[in-house]
Amino acid sequence: MNNIKSIRKDWDLIESLIKEKSRILDIGCGKGELIEQLEKNLKANIHGIEKNQGLASKAIAKGLNITHGDAEKDLSQYANQSFDYVILSQTLQAMMEPKKILKELLRVGSKAIVSFPNFGHWKIRLQLLLMGKMPITEGLPYSWYDTPNIHFFTLKDFENLCKEMNIAIEKSIGLTNKGKQFSIKSSLFPANIFTHEAIFLLSYKNFEPIKIKSTNKIFAKNSAIVN
Amino acid sequence: MSNFKIIKDKELDCNFVDFTNVDFKLESGYLLNNYRLAYKTFGTLNQNKTNAILICHALTGDQYVTGKNPITGRDGWWSRMVGPNKPIDTNKFFVICSNVLGGCAGSTGPKDKKDSNENIYGGEFPSITIKDIVDAQAKLLDALKIDQLFSVVGGSMGAMQALQWSIDFPNRIKSIIHIAGALKHSAQNIAFHEVGRQAIMNDSNWHKGNYSEEKTVPERGLSVARMIAHITYLSEDAMHRKFGRKLQSRDIISFGFDADFQIESYLRYQGRSFVERFDANSYLYLTRAMDYFDHSESYRKTLEFVNDSNNHINYLIISFTSDWLFPTRENKEIVKILNNLSKNVSFLEIETDKGHDSFLLDEPELDKVTKGFLESNYRKTNE
Known about the structure:
Chain A is of the alpha/beta class.
């Protein structure tokens, strides 16, 4: 219940970061609910990737454009800068190679929207400190031995990785465990303690994708050079 | 406008469209002056003609996609999928299915008479390609006065035709469902076809394809060809599940070469019954058409530079995990190119142990996704 509510909240925030009529890639799109929401509200053109056959099949049956597959392998098939936004909602911590994925997101899209549960939240810190056991919370509800989440990281870890990769954080929104929303950058509180879930809008620093306006398609594709 | 006539055939329970003096140019350069296509339609074409779906049959299929097949007396080859309230719902869609050019269920093929004389084509039938088959289907649509198809659907050789449609006539289609196909016929697939053809051509009854003059049929060769092909349509797991090492009508092995095992008996039966309904020369020509199918070098360039009107097409590519004839890898080649060029593509790999034949068998996920894809896209495009 709580989880569904927080996912919806997550989606509304994601929607608020996106311009109308954009071209979007939603990684781990499930049955395509977020795609439907964005199609409807933003008139966006959206493609999804989903690993689970049953979910992918349901999304395709709705008439959405879905590639059934593993984003860690299949992202490579998309052309450079072929999307305005690439969304990775609540999945970075489940990826084999989060760093490589981040790089791919910003190769394929001009902007990336990444949301994740913050392992630095006070509840988690407290559980580990007091009980000495791997924490279990609403956002991270699994036991350590059967969790799909294989890379735990905190807000600070993520910000450091962005810095290291020369990725600019255009916007960062935090949600407390009560669902209260705040801007991470201008927060008066120590954000790494109160952020239960974080949503980032990312792009490359000083990076202007080369977009040659031409009616001829030859030059319109693959023209952005990303390191 | 080409010269054609539509004839209803009661006995064969289908229609023929006869094209005369049309100089239909085949990919090989051969001019086919007259030809006939046998076809069937199901459901009703709506007023705006927006609900037509062409179903393309596989290597040994025919126009009897659903309903009774008057030749075999059995249900149509995809009656599970097509019909009223079925996944491809003939209450909503107008379904057309034609026997391919070069086939043997009524369309012009090697067993027919050549122009203006009584000789049978036999081994002198011109070489046919998938492109020729699709070109001929497009002429059928002209005859039926249908400008644009809502969808072209096919599995295996039918998938090749669906893909060919999207390449040659992008303006005439709105979507394709490509099931268990590939951009090209692989070396392994050509190899299996070649073994089948050798079996036919080495049958002393074949007479270089002119067996009808000799009043013989290369039965043994054709049935061996079918047996080999049938193995490639299954998977090891499915074969094991169905037959294992079970013995056929006996408790102990015979120490001879009878069909001791159920799998042997099954294959022999498949071979025997195939001979009754299929022409050996058609088998040669159509397997060749599949072998010649190859868009691996050209597909990307065609989409990018040649046909400029494929952005509206909704592509659905489906593969099966246990299909080793047209494996997921081969189907995904198409998806990769379409995704790379930002086309409207969906891809689904269905988990099953039934092998290449899965598309003809009870596979609920295939039914659901086919129905959903067709109906939701139909709603979207006609809103």
